[in-house]
Design brief:
Heat Shock Protein 90, 2 domains, 5-stranded mixed sheet, rod-shaped
């Protein structure tokens, strides 16, 4: 379908239907034409009205498209409509009266026996009909053009919103990778001299986790089952780093495994717990992962480090932002003095 950008739609069928129909209706509405009594509808009357209606419609259509070229900006709409309407009105009156003058004899609208319409009535009614036709053209084309522009604006806004969401997700994902590699490569360096076999297993689990990061980097959400599978490998890496000083318990019912979660959110929460809490032989850290009220909960006993600088909160902001983009349910964070709990919605 050929769409005129200045019109907003393909109006050929509209003109093909509306111009002949309008030319047929106008004599009955404005000139008192009847089938059963004088003045009768004749082919001369219809053809005359058709010529004038076509001239008004096509001329106003041209003025309308030119006005949209001269005033293309949205903030110019009021100025465009005012000036466009004034020019269309002048053109309509000029075309109607000029064509009416030349087609007067051909039309034969006046009844020769004096029972028809006077010349003054013809002029007045012709101008009324022309103005009505002009207003109809303006109403149709402006309504369709407005809806077309509105639809285009909504589509562009939605496209920009999706691109923005994708850009934010990509930016948020990149926060995980450097943090993850730095900690685990340091741990690997310390394991290799003491236990080469454990170092091999560590590399295998590290490879599994990092492969998962690469696989889900384009995903907005993944099945909880897949995330937990990698979480066990991630827990192995953490417990290799901290030994018996860290306990991780994962207890998620089978029926919850089909739910969706944001990729890498659990790993980030675990790393966040370790970053901000003491992990030692005298004060071991325990992390529990379980479900409650439609959410996945990550809970640890609270034993904050004596940090000189306050936490920036980047880890939790990462989680919150990623879920804000994908779910109406917010991430809940609770701290009661004994424990620190983060609940993330199962999508």
């Amino acid at each position: 379908m050929q769409v005129n950008e200045k019109i907003g739609f393909d109006d050929r069928l509209l003109m093909l239907c509306m111009i002949p129909v309008s030319a047929f209706i106008i004599p009955f509405v404005f000139f008192g034409i009847r089938f059963h009594k004088s003045p009768y509808l004749s082919w001369q009357v219809y053809l005359t009205t058709l010529i004038i209606t076509s001239a008004i419609w096509l001329g106003n259509r041209f003025i309308l498209t030119r006005a949209r070229s001269w005033y293309p900006q949205f903030n110019q709409t009021r100025r465009r409509i005012v000036r466009q309407s004034l020019v269309m009105l002048l053109y309509t009156l000029a075309a109607t009266n000029l064509l009416g003058y030349f087609l007067h004899d051909f039309c034969q609208l006046q009844d020769v026996q004096g029972r028809g319409i006077t010349a003054g009535d013809i002029v007045i009614n012709s101008n009324n009909a022309a103005i009505f036709s002009s207003l109809t053209v303006i109403a149709i084309y402006e309504s369709v053009y407005f809806m077309s522009q509105l639809r285009q604006s909504v589509e562009e806004k939605e496209l920009l919103r999706r691109e923005s969401l994708q850009a934010q997700l990509n930016a948020l994902r990149t926060q995980v990778n450097p943090h993850f590699l730095f900690n685990n490569l340091n741990a690997l360096v310390s394991v290799i001299p003491e236990s080469p076999e454990q170092a091999v297993q560590f590399v295998q689990q590290l490879s599994k986790v990092y492969r998962h990061i690469l696989e889900v980097k384009e995903e907005r959400s993944i099945p909880l089952k897949d995330e937990l599978s990698v979480l066990h490998a991630y827990a192995f890496l953490l417990q290799t780093r901290f030994g018996n000083n860290l306990s991780i318990h994962i207890n998620v019912p089978e029926e919850k495994l089909r739910k969706q979660v944001v990729p890498l959110s659990l790993q980030l929460l675990m790393e966040n717990a370790i970053k901000h809490n003491i992990v030692s032989s005298t004060r071991p850290l325990t992390i529990d992962v379980f479900t409650s009220n439609g959410s996945l909960v990550v809970k640890n006993n609270l034993q904050k480090k004596n940090q000189v600088l306050e936490s920036t909160g980047i880890g939790l902001d990462n989680i919150r932002n990623r879920y804000r983009l994908l779910s109406e349910t917010a991430v809940e964070v609770k701290e009661d003095g004994q424990s620190f709990t983060v609940s993330i919605p199962l999508i």
